[in-house]
Amino acid sequence: MDAPKKPTVAVIGASADRTKFGNRSLRAHAGCGYEVFAVNPKGGEIEGLPVYASIAEVPASPLDRVTMYVPPAVGLTLLDAIAAKGCGELWLNPGTESPEMIARAEALGLNPIVACSLIDCASRGA
């Protein structure tokens, strides 16, 4: 029998710096049982994971969750690509949200959640 499929998450703004939330999120989501995809235009590898330069390059589609760790002005430019990829939940972590971003995400049919995805993982026991 096949193992159950892990839920998927793309961490936009993934960071190699273990003190940054973009890195803490990678580790927390992995600990929470997600298949994690790191997204950062620099590419490379973080925490043993390949880093995709854009959400379009992530091999899973649609994603269960996309969690943002970039400034609102940057995130706003990524919403069309996120909508094209598809996701069940779009987490706008503290400092990543703006009224314009929330309105645009809703207009694209995304489900923006303005909250900390790290706290969500912790609440699940990770």
TrEMBL record:
InterPro entries, per this entry?
CoA-bd, NAD(P)-bd_dom_sf
Q: Which SUPFAM superfamilies match?
A: NAD(P)-binding Rossmann-fold domains
Q: What Pfam families does the entry give?
A: CoA_binding_2
CoA-binding domain sequence ranges:
4-96
Question: What is the name of the protein in this document?
Answer: CoA binding domain protein
The species this protein was found in = Botrimarina colliarenosi
